[in-house]
User: Which sequence fits this backbone?
């Protein structure tokens, strides 16, 4: 394995972490949006606030990590993506900013109407952000980002594979959030809410599976290089994702919520890993390989060292933070909310 491959692997770790943790965070907006009126949806919205409140900013650490690694290690590819996909990237950024602001403002609203307004903005922006981030991934995977940058500002992402990727990013985020929230509600002892969330997570999971199957044909004709990799060397990861996805649904049916959450995480992580393996050695599919896009060897070595130090310094506090929110003591706070 070459040095550029190692750095690309470290970059992929950040992408997977953001998709899992940030995705579950974003997906909670769907359940906030469909929670119901002020009275009926109060308990679910309280659960969402307690579940994502301590970690929602921490999740964006991974986005910063991905951006810094990308522009430092692969400046040519980073420039091409930023100049070609500036529209969906700006829309995703707008969603992230609006989501953060509305999440905070809702808690300090002076009136019920203000709280509803900020709640609606929070829910809508929670879906906007993953959709446009998904279109960026789809544009890259389908070879629509030229190596020299400055590709078509609209056609580069308004196309079958990018749009399908955007929809799948939203649906998988909602499914992750559903499995996480169901487990949190069960741990807090909120049986009625647990059943309500379980049913919704099952429906979302079934819809996501149907979307994946329905997307196979348009992607095969729109992104042949990616498709060849998916049915070839990435095949085992695709199979793992399918097995884990069906396993998560089965575990939800059996009310084994903690294990279902693990299966859902494995399913999404396997999808992302399969995407990376399928398009390797391309960084920009059909345009620029990992080796061609890599920066100076000294820079890459420094980044490997920084990534290792970050794993030692940043990872333990993040793990502790996430574990803390899964304790009985934290659930007790929800019981008294």
Assistant:
């Amino acid at each position: 394995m070459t040095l550029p491959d190692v750095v690309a692997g470290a970059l992929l770790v950040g992408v997977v972490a953001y998709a899992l943790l940030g995705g579950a965070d974003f997906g909670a907006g769907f359940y906030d949006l469909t929670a119901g009126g002020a009275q009926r949806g109060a308990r679910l919205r309280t659960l969402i606030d307690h579940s994502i409140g301590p970690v929602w900013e921490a999740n964006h650490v991974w986005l910063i990590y991905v951006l810094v690694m990308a522009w430092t290690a692969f400046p040519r590819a980073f420039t091409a993506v930023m100049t070609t996909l500036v529209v969906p990237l700006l829309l995703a950024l707008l969603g992230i900013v609006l989501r953060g602001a509305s999440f905070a403002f809702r808690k300090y609203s002076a009136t019920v109407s203000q709280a509803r307004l900020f709640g609606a903005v929070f829910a809508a922006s929670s879906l906007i952000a993953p959709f446009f981030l998904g279109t960026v991934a789809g544009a890259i995977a389908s070879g629509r980002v030229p190596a020299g940058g400055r590709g078509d500002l609209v056609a580069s992402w308004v196309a079958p594979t990018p749009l399908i990727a955007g929809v799948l990013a939203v649906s998988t985020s909602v499914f992750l959030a559903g499995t996480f929230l169901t487990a949190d509600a069960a741990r807090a002892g909120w049986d009625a809410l647990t059943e309500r969330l379980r049913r919704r997570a099952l429906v979302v999971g079934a819809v996501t599976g149907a979307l994946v199957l329905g997307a196979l044909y348009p992607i095969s004709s729109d992104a042949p290089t990616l498709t060849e990799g998916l049915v070839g060397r990435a095949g085992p990861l695709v199979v793992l994702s399918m097995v884990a996805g069906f396993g998560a649904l089965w575990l939800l049916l059996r009310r084994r919520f903690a294990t279902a959450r693990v299966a859902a995480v494995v399913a999404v992580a396997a999808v992302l890993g399969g995407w990376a393996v399928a398009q390797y050695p391309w960084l920009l599919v059909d345009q620029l390989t990992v080796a061609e896009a890599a920066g100076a060897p000294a820079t890459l070595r420094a980044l490997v060292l920084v990534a290792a130090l970050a794993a030692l310094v940043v990872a333990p506090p993040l793990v502790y933070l996430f574990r803390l929110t899964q304790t009985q003591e934290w659930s007790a706070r929800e019981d008294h909310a």
Remarks:
- The chain has a mean pLDDT of 88.
- The two ends are 51 Å apart (CA to CA).
